[in-house]
Amino acid sequence: MALLDEKIRAQVQPQAQALIKPVTLHVFTQELECQFCRETRQLAEELAAMAPEKIKVAVHNFVLDKAEVETYKIDKIPALAVVGEQDYGIRFFGIPGGYEFTSLLQAITMVGSGDAGLSQASRMKLGALIKPVNLKVYVTLTCPYCPQAVHLAHQMAMASPLIRAEMIEATEFPHLANRDQIMAVPKVVIDGIGSFEGALPEALFIEKIIALVNGGKT
Protein backbone atom coordinates (compact mmCIF):
# COMPACT_ATOMS: atom_id res chain seq x y z
CA MET A 1 0.00 0.00 0.00
CA ALA A 2 1.33 3.43 -0.93
CA LEU A 3 2.21 5.82 1.88
CA LEU A 4 1.52 8.93 -0.19
CA ASP A 5 -2.01 9.38 -1.50
CA GLU A 6 -2.91 10.92 -4.84
CA LYS A 7 -3.56 14.37 -3.36
CA ILE A 8 -0.09 14.53 -1.79
CA ARG A 9 1.52 13.16 -4.95
CA ALA A 10 -0.16 15.87 -7.01
CA GLN A 11 1.24 18.51 -4.68
CA VAL A 12 4.76 17.07 -4.37
CA GLN A 13 5.51 15.87 -7.89
CA PRO A 14 5.89 19.34 -9.45
CA GLN A 15 8.36 20.28 -6.69
CA ALA A 16 10.35 17.10 -7.27
CA GLN A 17 10.47 17.56 -11.03
CA ALA A 18 11.54 21.20 -10.64
CA LEU A 19 14.76 20.34 -8.79
CA ILE A 20 17.81 21.90 -10.43
CA LYS A 21 20.43 19.54 -9.04
CA PRO A 22 20.21 15.77 -8.41
CA VAL A 23 19.52 14.54 -4.90
CA THR A 24 20.27 11.12 -3.45
CA LEU A 25 18.37 9.77 -0.45
CA HIS A 26 20.64 7.37 1.41
CA VAL A 27 18.42 5.09 3.48
CA PHE A 28 19.88 2.92 6.23
CA THR A 29 17.98 -0.15 7.32
CA GLN A 30 18.77 -3.82 7.95
CA GLU A 31 17.69 -7.25 6.70
CA LEU A 32 15.29 -7.74 9.59
CA GLU A 33 13.93 -4.23 9.35
CA CYS A 34 13.47 -2.18 12.48
CA GLN A 35 10.28 -0.40 13.43
CA PHE A 36 9.57 2.16 10.69
CA CYS A 37 12.62 1.10 8.64
CA ARG A 38 10.44 -0.35 5.90
CA GLU A 39 8.20 2.71 5.87
CA THR A 40 11.18 5.07 5.73
CA ARG A 41 12.63 3.19 2.77
CA GLN A 42 9.23 3.08 1.05
CA LEU A 43 8.70 6.81 1.60
CA ALA A 44 12.06 7.58 -0.04
CA GLU A 45 11.28 5.27 -2.95
CA GLU A 46 7.85 6.83 -3.53
CA LEU A 47 9.39 10.30 -3.60
CA ALA A 48 12.09 9.17 -6.04
CA ALA A 49 9.49 7.60 -8.31
CA MET A 50 7.93 11.03 -8.84
CA ALA A 51 11.10 12.37 -10.47
CA PRO A 52 13.52 9.47 -11.09
CA GLU A 53 15.86 11.67 -13.11
CA LYS A 54 16.18 14.10 -10.17
CA ILE A 55 15.89 11.93 -7.03
CA LYS A 56 17.75 8.67 -6.45
CA VAL A 57 17.54 6.22 -3.55
CA ALA A 58 20.48 4.24 -2.20
CA VAL A 59 19.57 1.61 0.38
CA HIS A 60 22.28 0.50 2.79
CA ASN A 61 22.32 -2.36 5.29
CA PHE A 62 23.18 -0.92 8.70
CA VAL A 63 24.90 -4.13 9.75
CA LEU A 64 26.71 -5.13 6.56
CA ASP A 65 27.50 -1.90 4.72
CA LYS A 66 30.13 -0.72 7.16
CA ALA A 67 31.86 1.66 4.74
CA GLU A 68 28.67 3.61 4.07
CA VAL A 69 27.73 3.61 7.76
CA GLU A 70 31.12 5.11 8.58
CA THR A 71 31.06 7.57 5.67
CA TYR A 72 27.68 9.00 6.64
CA LYS A 73 28.24 8.56 10.40
CA ILE A 74 25.08 6.57 11.02
CA ASP A 75 24.66 5.21 14.55
CA LYS A 76 20.96 4.28 14.63
CA ILE A 77 18.14 3.35 12.27
CA PRO A 78 15.95 4.13 10.48
CA ALA A 79 18.21 6.80 9.08
CA LEU A 80 18.07 8.94 5.98
CA ALA A 81 20.81 11.21 4.62
CA VAL A 82 19.86 13.83 2.04
CA VAL A 83 22.90 14.28 -0.20
CA GLY A 84 23.42 16.50 -3.22
CA GLU A 85 26.59 17.44 -5.06
CA GLN A 86 28.20 17.00 -1.67
CA ASP A 87 27.19 15.71 1.74
CA TYR A 88 26.03 18.68 3.81
CA GLY A 89 25.41 16.64 6.97
CA ILE A 90 21.61 16.65 6.68
CA ARG A 91 20.17 13.65 8.51
CA PHE A 92 16.83 12.20 9.60
CA PHE A 93 16.75 9.57 12.35
CA GLY A 94 13.29 8.05 12.56
CA ILE A 95 10.65 8.17 9.87
CA PRO A 96 10.07 11.72 8.55
CA GLY A 97 6.31 11.32 8.58
CA GLY A 98 3.51 13.46 9.96
CA TYR A 99 4.56 17.09 10.16
CA GLU A 100 8.16 16.03 9.52
CA PHE A 101 7.30 15.05 5.96
CA THR A 102 7.45 18.79 5.36
CA SER A 103 11.01 18.83 6.75
CA LEU A 104 12.03 16.09 4.33
CA LEU A 105 10.53 17.93 1.36
CA GLN A 106 12.26 21.13 2.45
CA ALA A 107 15.60 19.33 2.72
CA ILE A 108 15.25 17.77 -0.73
CA THR A 109 14.20 21.08 -2.29
CA MET A 110 17.02 22.95 -0.57
CA VAL A 111 19.73 20.47 -1.57
CA GLY A 112 18.26 20.22 -5.06
CA SER A 113 18.40 24.00 -5.46
CA GLY A 114 21.95 24.32 -4.17
CA ASP A 115 20.93 27.18 -1.88
CA ALA A 116 20.48 27.00 1.89
CA GLY A 117 18.10 29.95 1.76
CA LEU A 118 19.53 31.75 4.80
CA SER A 119 19.77 35.52 4.90
CA GLN A 120 23.12 37.16 4.28
CA ALA A 121 23.18 38.32 7.90
CA SER A 122 22.72 34.73 9.09
CA ARG A 123 25.48 33.47 6.81
CA MET A 124 27.83 36.08 8.23
CA LYS A 125 26.94 35.06 11.78
CA LEU A 126 27.72 31.43 10.99
CA GLY A 127 31.22 32.56 10.09
CA ALA A 128 31.75 33.22 13.80
CA LEU A 129 31.66 29.52 14.68
CA ILE A 130 34.99 28.41 16.12
CA LYS A 131 34.53 24.60 16.14
CA PRO A 132 32.44 21.82 14.59
CA VAL A 133 28.96 21.24 15.97
CA ASN A 134 26.33 18.52 15.67
CA LEU A 135 22.80 19.85 16.11
CA LYS A 136 20.30 17.25 17.33
CA VAL A 137 16.74 18.45 16.89
CA TYR A 138 14.29 16.27 18.81
CA VAL A 139 10.77 16.18 17.39
CA THR A 140 7.56 14.23 17.41
CA LEU A 141 5.53 13.65 14.28
CA THR A 142 2.51 15.44 15.77
CA CYS A 143 4.37 18.66 16.59
CA PRO A 144 3.42 21.47 14.16
CA TYR A 145 6.27 23.71 15.32
CA CYS A 146 9.06 21.14 14.95
CA PRO A 147 9.60 21.39 11.16
CA GLN A 148 10.66 25.03 11.56
CA ALA A 149 13.48 24.06 13.94
CA VAL A 150 14.51 21.08 11.81
CA HIS A 151 14.61 23.13 8.62
CA LEU A 152 16.66 25.90 10.22
CA ALA A 153 19.17 23.35 11.53
CA HIS A 154 19.41 21.76 8.08
CA GLN A 155 19.82 25.19 6.48
CA MET A 156 22.71 25.86 8.83
CA ALA A 157 24.29 22.52 7.96
CA MET A 158 24.13 23.31 4.28
CA ALA A 159 25.51 26.81 4.79
CA SER A 160 28.42 25.88 7.06
CA PRO A 161 30.93 23.02 6.73
CA LEU A 162 31.26 23.05 10.53
CA ILE A 163 27.66 22.03 11.12
CA ARG A 164 25.86 18.69 10.93
CA ALA A 165 22.14 18.64 11.71
CA GLU A 166 19.96 15.70 12.70
CA MET A 167 16.23 15.32 13.12
CA ILE A 168 15.62 12.72 15.86
CA GLU A 169 12.08 11.42 16.32
CA ALA A 170 11.85 11.23 20.11
CA THR A 171 9.31 8.41 20.42
CA GLU A 172 11.39 6.09 18.20
CA PHE A 173 14.51 6.60 20.30
CA PRO A 174 13.19 6.83 23.89
CA HIS A 175 16.60 6.01 25.42
CA LEU A 176 18.09 9.07 23.71
CA ALA A 177 15.10 11.24 24.61
CA ASN A 178 15.49 10.16 28.23
CA ARG A 179 19.25 10.78 28.22
CA ASP A 180 18.83 14.26 26.75
CA GLN A 181 15.87 15.06 29.04
CA ILE A 182 13.36 15.72 26.30
CA MET A 183 10.28 17.08 28.05
CA ALA A 184 9.03 19.24 25.19
CA VAL A 185 9.70 19.53 21.47
CA PRO A 186 11.27 20.89 19.43
CA LYS A 187 14.43 20.72 21.50
CA VAL A 188 17.90 21.35 20.09
CA VAL A 189 20.72 19.51 21.84
CA ILE A 190 24.44 20.07 21.34
CA ASP A 191 26.31 17.25 23.09
CA GLY A 192 28.44 18.42 25.99
CA ILE A 193 27.53 22.06 25.41
CA GLY A 194 23.86 22.79 26.03
CA SER A 195 20.34 22.84 24.68
CA PHE A 196 17.26 24.98 24.17
CA GLU A 197 13.59 24.44 23.42
CA GLY A 198 11.22 26.05 20.99
CA ALA A 199 10.89 27.02 17.34
CA LEU A 200 12.81 30.28 17.33
CA PRO A 201 13.04 32.80 14.48
CA GLU A 202 16.07 32.40 12.20
CA ALA A 203 18.21 35.17 13.69
CA LEU A 204 17.59 34.16 17.30
CA PHE A 205 18.01 30.45 16.53
CA ILE A 206 21.44 31.05 15.00
CA GLU A 207 22.54 33.48 17.73
CA LYS A 208 21.56 30.96 20.40
CA ILE A 209 23.60 28.19 18.78
CA ILE A 210 26.66 30.35 18.17
CA ALA A 211 26.56 31.61 21.77
CA LEU A 212 26.38 28.04 23.10
CA VAL A 213 29.13 26.69 20.86
CA ASN A 214 31.47 29.64 21.27
CA GLY A 215 30.91 29.90 25.00
CA GLY A 216 29.09 33.19 24.74
CA LYS A 217 31.43 34.63 22.10
CA THR A 218 29.50 35.82 19.04
Q: TL;DR?
A:
The chain is of the alpha/beta class.
Describe the structure.
- By secondary structure, the protein is of the alpha/beta class.
- It has two domains: 6-113, Glutaredoxin, CATH 3.40.30.10; 120-213, Glutaredoxin (3-Layer(aba) Sandwich), CATH 3.40.30.10.
- Helices cover 39% and strands 21% of the residues.
- The protein has helices spanning 6-17, 37-50, 66-71, 100-113, 120-126, 146-159, 174-179, 202-213, and strands at residues 23-29, 55-61, 79-83, 90-93, 133-139, 163-169, 187-190, 194-197.
- The chain has an eight-stranded mixed β-sheet.
- A hairpin with a 6-residue loop joins strand 3 and strand 4 (90-93).
- Helix 4 (100-113) packs parallel to helix 6.
- The radius of gyration is 17 Å and the shape is globular.
- The model has no long low-confidence stretch (mean pLDDT 95).
Radius of gyration: 17 Å
Q: How far apart are the termini? A: 50 Å
Sheet with the most strands, sense and barrel status: 8 strands, mixed
User: Looking across the biggest beta sheet, what order are the strands in?
Assistant: 2-1-3-4-6-5-7-8
Helix proportion: 25-40%
Alpha plus pi helix count: 8
Average pLDDT, rounded to a whole number, is 95
